[in-house]
Amino acid sequence: MNNWTARLEATEAPLGAARGECQPSDPVQFVLVPLVYCLVLCVGLPGNLVALLAFLQSGQVRKAIRIYLINLTLADILFNLTLPLWIPYYLAGGHWALSDATCRLAGAAYYIATYSAIAFMTLISFNRYCTVRVARLDLALNRRHGAVAACVMVWLLFLGCAVPSLAAQQTWAGSQGTKCFEQLAWHRNLAYAMVGFFAVSFLVVLGAYASIMRLLSATASQGSHRRLARAMVLGMLLVFVVCVAPYHLTLAPWVAGQMQTPGCSPPSTLDILHTLSVALLSLNSCIDPLIYCFSIKALVHPGTSLQCLGPVVRI
What we know:
It contains nine helices and two strands; from the N terminus they run αααααββαααα. By secondary structure, it is mainly alpha-helical. Strand 1 and strand 2 form a beta hairpin. The longest helix has 37 residues.
């Protein structure tokens, strides 16, 4: 990756070819981003592994919400596992020292994990909204088999989206080393589709939180399960606003700018903002375990819980 690329290059422009052979130094890209990735790896991977063990300790997974949480945790773990491959790449100034097959897997896994996590957060928020309704919605998505089917569809959808990047060569020789996931041009329409997917997901999460707040304000009884549902959806909403939204707000204009700007030039303000948004996007995977702690309080059953604070409340 060079100065103008982000991690989800499966959706972005042929930057190496468009910019020529020069590569100006970019401390944001090659210093800040790997430092953030190191932090995310050190905090996110242990946190998500602990959360996954807690979810699975009950033996049989029966509730839809637990299925969604397990899959969100798996997506975060997959994301964390790609970081040891990308950190050296950034620290080396954008030189890929591994094989082309490893490059393909690393890029595709990053893409699959990021957007699967967004989908699972959306499903979790909708599920929590359904649980606080006075007349609960008995939808297939809120039952065990429906949740399993939804999660399988999410994984298959984004795996299918990643197939083109897995099938084509993704490394090429640049002036300052071998580049990874920068060679092929992808239509800007796919970047717009990513922004559209984020917008729909964000509106669902925002709508779920607003509906829960309206229901709580109109209901005299505010049981613990309703307060915890509100806390969980609020956590998801904050992740969208702080971590996910900045990337998608800069993605479309950034891609358009990369495709229109010829030659080699220093990073623009939009380039820097986009790179910073990539760093923020990665924080998602280490914030999710904190949401579990503050909104669930205890997982699976007494004696096998993440008792971060407060009394035991089961999901």
